[in-house]
Automatic annotation (TrEMBL):
PROSITE patterns documented for this protein: PROKAR_LIPOPROTEIN, THIOREDOXIN_1, THIOREDOXIN_2
InterPro entries cross-referenced by the UniProt entry: AhpC/TSA (IPR000866), Thioredoxin-like_sf (IPR036249), Thioredoxin_CS (IPR017937), Thioredoxin_domain (IPR013766), Thioredoxin_ResA/DsbE_sf (IPR050553)
Any coiled-coil regions, as ranges: none
Gene3D superfamilies given in the database record: Glutaredoxin
Alphabetized UniProt keyword annotations: Cytochrome c-type biogenesis, Disulfide bond, Redox-active center, Signal-anchor, Transmembrane
Cellular localisation: Cell envelope
Residue span(s) of domain Thioredoxin: 37-177
Cited Pfam families: AhpC-TSA
Lineage, highest ranks first: Bacteria, Bacillati, Actinomycetota, Actinomycetes, Micromonosporales
Domain of life per record: Bacteria
Protein name (database record): TlpA family protein disulfide reductase
Length: 184
């Protein structure tokens, strides 16, 4: 890894460390947690090895709404939101919504122990936080952070704190409904 790339990785990790488990504000300029369709940025490639084996590739879900949650086993707000995330996953997967967790800055055995019994959706193991670097236009600069990707592969919402089921469900349902909208 070159010095510039290493510096960038260290910079992002430092920012995430400083913001970890924080109560940062959501994306500015949104209504009901949604970014206006015309202002949405394309989501980067998201690929990686899953905690329980196998791999994940966001591009396989083009045309679907995808919820991406950045988490760590040591993060108290991550523990607080885990039940809410699972609840929305269970209630929305029949609509074609996909969830994926991205575990960062963690040890694999601790991540697996946290994830088992809390989440039935897959989670990528990304201890170096490299996936977060791809989200430079709308960075998940706190742990936890939850992004909702629309059917066109754009970031429709970002929450840089723990999220409750009612709030996430409202955003997910709004983004799912966009497929029938000319502005979606």
């Amino acid at each position: 890894m070159g010095l510039t790339r290493r510096s960038a990785v260290l910079g992002v990790l430092a920012a995430v460390t400083l913001a970890a488990c924080s109560d940062n504000q959501d994306q500015k300029g949104t209504q009901s947690g949604l970014i206006e369709a015309a202002k949405r940025k394309k989501a980067p490639a998201v690929t990686g090895d899953l905690l329980e084996g196998g791999s994940f590739d966001l591009s396989a879900y083009q045309g679907k709404v995808v919820v991406v949650n950045f988490w760590a086993s040591w993060c108290a707000p991550c523990r607080a939101e885990a039940t809410d995330l699972e609840e929305v996953w269970q209630s929305s997967k029949a609509s074609g919504v996909q969830f994926v967790g991205i575990n960062i800055r963690d040890e694999k055995d601790k991540a697996i122990a946290f994830h088992s019994g809390r989440a039935t959706y897959p989670s990528i193991f990304d201890p170096a936080g490299k996936i977060a670097l791809g989200f430079s236009d709308v960075p998940p600069s706190a742990i936890p952070s939850t992004l909702v990707i629309d059917q066109q592969g754009r970031i429709a919402s970002i929450t840089r704190r723990d999220i409750r089921a009612a709030d996430l469900r409202e955003v997910v349902e709004a983004v799912v409904a966009e497929k029938d909208s000319p502005n979606g």
